[in-house]
Amino acid sequence: MIPNASIDVEISSEGTLETSRTYKLYSDKIQGYTDGLEAVKQAIYKVLNTERYEYPIYSFNYGIELENLIGKDRTYVQVELKRRISECLLRDERITSVDNFRFEGSGDMIKCTFDVHTIYGNLTISREVNI
Q1: Do the beta carbons of residue 96 and residue 117 sit within 8 Å?
Q2: What CA–CA distances, in Å, run from 37 to 46, 53, 80, 121?
Q3: pLDDT tens digits for range 1-54
Q4: Which Gene3D superfamilies does this one have (predicted)?
Q5: Positive or negative, the Cα torsion across 107, 49, 68, 115?
Q6: What is d(CA 93, CA 50) in angstroms, rounded to the nearest whole number?
Q7: DSSP code of 53?
Q8: Is the dihedral of CA 41, 45, 47, 48 positive or negative?
Q9: Would residue 55 count as lying in a domain?
Q10: Does a structural domain hold residue 12?
């Protein structure tokens, strides 16, 4: 025989935002804690300086692919940087949008400056890339 019991289960679909409190990195030291906008700024720095697929400690969704841009046309690199930076930063639920990309540089270097809008406020970030 099959039992005729029923179990009522309520599933809440409301997600709670985890705290952004993390260790504060200062040069080559960990000094205390940081939270809010400074923690997001630190997370942006880390993700933009981690080559994607390079380190087994990180998932394949973490980091940015920059090494394969070396030797490519400057116009192509600018379009790809905009896409890749937006893609890797928008994985963080604290970041709402990335826009206002500006590019400068010559020779084998491009400096990309852009605005990041977060739930804590706005940031302007710069990243230099060798091409």
Answers
A1: yes
A2: 14, 27, 26, 7
A3: 666 766 665 655 565 556 677 878 777 788 888 889 999 999 999 999 998 988
A4: 3.10.450.40
A5: negative
A6: 19
A7: T
A8: positive
A9: yes
A10: no
Spatial CB neighbours of 37, under 8 Å, sequence gap ≥ 6: 118, 120, 121, 123
Residue 58 is assigned to a structural domain of this protein: yes
**Beta carbons of 26 and 44 less than 8 angstroms apart:** no
Quote the DSSP letter at residue 68: G
Query: Which CATH number does the domain housing residue 34 bear?
Result: 3.10.450.40
At 85 the pLDDT is 96
109, two tokens:
């270097």
The SS3 of residue 73 is coil
Q: Where are the extended beta strands (E) located within the chain?
A: 22-26, 29-34, 95-104, 109-118, 122-130
Retrieve residue 97's tokens: 């949008």
User: Residues 74-97: what's their mean pLDDT?
Assistant: 94
Mapped onto helix, strand or coil, the DSSP state of residue 83 is helix
Distance, CA of 89 to CA of 4 (rounded, Å): 50
